[in-house]
Amino acid sequence: MTAQPPAHPTAQAADGPAEDPAGPPADAAGLTARTRRLIAAHPPATTGRTDFLRARFDAGLAWVHYPAGFGGLGAPRALQTVVDAELAAAHAPDNDPRRIGIGLGMAAPTLLAYGSEEVKRRFLKPLWVGEEVWCQLFSEPGAGSDLAALATRAVRDGDTWVIDGQKVWTSGAHLARWGILLARTDPDLPKHQGISYFVCDMTDPGVEVRPLRQITGEAEFNEVFLTGVRIPDAHRLGAVGDGWRVARTTLMNERVSIGGARVPREGGMIGKAAATWRSRPELRTHELHRRLLDLWVDAEVARLTGERLRQQLAAGRPGPEGSAMKLGFARLNQEISALEVELLEDEGLLYGDWTMVRPDLVDFTGRDAGYRYLRARGNSIEGGTSEVLLNIVAERVLGLPPEPRDDKDVPWKDLAR
User: Fold this and answer.
1) Which residue out of 223, 254, 321, 335 is catalytically annotated?
2) Is the entire prediction scored with pTM above 0.85?
């Protein structure tokens, strides 16, 4: 099935910025005043959701640490909480971040870092408002953990690139308007050097999206076939052949967005397990109590570590610490969901619905324990396998010697496949 264009037009969303350079300063008091002015001019109770979000972006209150003109004010990242608190008190709509998480957490930071002014102006606003959903076209059947071995080709034809290849494990491709794409532009170079990074139009006639049914019964993942897809050179991010460096920006942000998301104390998976424990005393055993306490402490440590990571992000770009957070996230989710299924005994084996659907988002806490257990199996694969992340932590955090690699300087075309 070929991805369809979004139901909402995006011409307005791509209009130029409307920030008021003479407005309040970008400190806490200034952001409070600016937010209240937005609310007064566009009352959430009477303003359409999309119209309010567009106005918020234009006011520089989408992500305050982004530059003026692109939804921000160049303010410290930590001050976003000032804006969010004012908007929450006014019951203002959000941009449904779970539905557009790939765009917010992966595409946007890469567009900001490597996109031209024209690219940033075209894509950032509809991305943040949620009018255009994004997907990630990285992994391939023969290049998953070893992503740099990818074989999708991009051949230049004047001012465009012609793309042929296959991608896999593409979350949300059935909903996406745009995709961030890695393709090989020079097979004569070593695998990390001959890759370029593009923005792919998912409505191009050469894009075919097929569902991949998962162990949960759903198909949030897809395989994507690219046949003669044409991408303008203006939609290339970074220099030709520099795609691996651009991709590392995406991947670091991806791991932070997966493993470092802000949750309240006893939020997420541990909250569901604790709620079951409190509400079902007849299921309790001493051994399960001990395990639950251990996991509760681990979840709280992970939450606080994530808070510290977000504070570090306010001072610069994400580093390899995001890989450690994502690694811990996968382990915790799998262990907590297994404990919950065991705690529920026979009930834990029940499963609500095996109907094949293509969901808009992944909802861990809104489903039953069986779904959480099955879906958590994928946490140690998606966003970088746990094995790869262990290597990253060992080499870039702990400073251990890297594993021997004999293919780093060999032209990609000469590698065994």
Assistant:
1) 254
2) yes
